[in-house]
Amino acid sequence: MSRKTFYVTTPIYYVNDAPHIGHAYTTVLADVLARYHKLLGDDTFFLTGTDEHGQKVQQAAEKRGVSPQAHCDEYSERFKAAWKDLNIGFDDFIRTTDSKHKDYVRKQLQKLWEKRLPDGRTMIYPQEYAGWYSTSEERFFAEDELVDGKDPISGRAVEWITEKNYFFRMSAFQEQLIRHVEGTDFILPDFRRNEVLGFLRQPLKDLCISRPKSRLSWGIPLPFDEDYVAYVWVDALLNYASAVDGKEFPNGADVWPADFHLIGKDILTTHAIYWSTLLMALDMPLPKHILAHGWWLIDNARMSKTTGNVVSPLAMKDKYGVDAFRFFLIREMIVGSDASFSEEAFVGRLNADLANDVGNGLSRVIKLGEVVGSTLSLAGSGLTDFVDHTDLLVAETKRVLDLLKKRLGEIQLSQLVDDSLTIFRFVNRYFEATAPWKLAKGADADKERLQVVLWHAAEALRIGFTLLHPVMPGKMTEALNALGFTPEASPLEWRESGAFSLKPMSPLFPRIETKPVAAAPAKEVEDPFSSVELRAVKILSVEEHPNAEALYVLKVDAGEAEPRTVCAGLRKHLSKEELTGKHGVLVANLKPAMLRGVASMGMMLAADGEGKLSLANPEGAKPGDAVTAEGLESKPKPQITIKDFEKCPLTVRNGQVCYKDKPLRTPHGPVLAHAPDGAEVR
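The structure assignment produced for this chain is given below.
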């Protein structure tokens, strides 16, 4: 049987800025995915690189008084050096100024120039075009796309330009692309697919694929008209194919098509539509998946150079270590959703997950192992009084191993990390139950039983370290070496025998002592309810949660482009029939949470009437209607935590849901609750 293959890409990063946490997240995510597939024995190829043409590069170079190539060389090297510092194991780093790439782009554009559609029309045609041009985004916008007369994406000024250009008949592939997106899991997560379909169900315009050299000289000349260069997005998107043109995996399979393009949600349209239609026109296979992840938020706002809230990944690496930084990125963000970054949360993760859970068990094994000579084996039985605890440890470790391929296939890396952490938590519980420090005491030490206890703990740790190796390759290699293993020689299965050669080592993750924060001057405190976003929703479908008998998995219409998935603890109180088609109230800006393997995008409000839950009912409301408290200004944050929401107690009063005696309302009426006065709503 031939080995499986896996090809993953990041976007190629524009050489107009230093790497920030957004760049780092995508690249670390790709690296972790590639490493997991290598761990499973798959032939793997991982591509990243830099996008080096276009007007912004030309202008930046002119401003600095250097050539565009010199500018690109410097900034591309910054990205390459940053990825080395973050232990990124890419297989190729492409630059769009590479001669191989430029030749490939010209070859493909020439193919398109010579091809015809079935109706005889050319794929590419010249046309004079007039429109509002944004230098920031390097594209034209129609009048109705502008916001306050400015670029709707960057908010910067646009200028009116009239010029001849070349256009690709992107519109000819609209229906074909709709069928592909509808019929496959091409776009991930699922709710992003609906965004793409929403765009595709509008008339699709043809794509301008050129810029005249009179305005922009820094680019790849069109093969059929040397007075023009290729539009930077056409040039850039072709990198995913140019980098692997003619390449094969060791098993003989072509590297193209990619299994995953990993991108930020802000460039989904260009990848899902521009790139896909270009491939269709060239009769090339489409990538299997395009996965659009969320943004990192700082103080609930998107990072921006303008606001100065950009986090440097190298600064975080230097302060806390590369593996801790990689761990936080993967652990904290549910792929597809936004995530908040703060140094406080970072340190909290390090102390709770790494210092307490991951590092503690290894320290105990090594220290107690000195009593038995630092070599662990399973000679003798020795565990008659610990059988139940040992069986539980083994069963939990095997359960996590069984989840690996499922989590990886669904790109649930945050949950995969959490699964792995349960092994370390069970090791710590195992120690508490078996108390090996008592077995190690003085002249009466029971070395036989001690060795067996430590062996089982070490075996679970070995598997946990191996599972986390793709996330933290440096520290997990150190940990495995301390047990007498290398990552390559550590099998992903529970062994029934075998020895450990323990080696002393310093703590894996020393606890970080946080400094007390000085008290800030007193200021007017905003009501916490103002930050909560409540919306009226309609329940479209109800299914049992596969792993939690108290939970339903709901699909709800929240007035957005696509339904949301919400886990709700209503299963013991209401039937599917009682919920399907009903209206309710959703906490819409609650931080997404993974509940027993299902990502929940919000929380439904229900009143607790003497042990019987009933949905809060936004009478007469439409899906998406805002729910507010009378007389209280609503200024919802992009994201809140469950602790934030718990600061806003809701109760029933005269059959209505209230906050501090202020009734909740939609534009159409009050929010009702079938529960006695004083009943809690949560």
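Interim note for the steering committee: The chain has four domains: 5-105+233-302, 117-176+190-230, 341-501, 529-681. Residues 516-524 have pLDDT under 50 and may be disordered.
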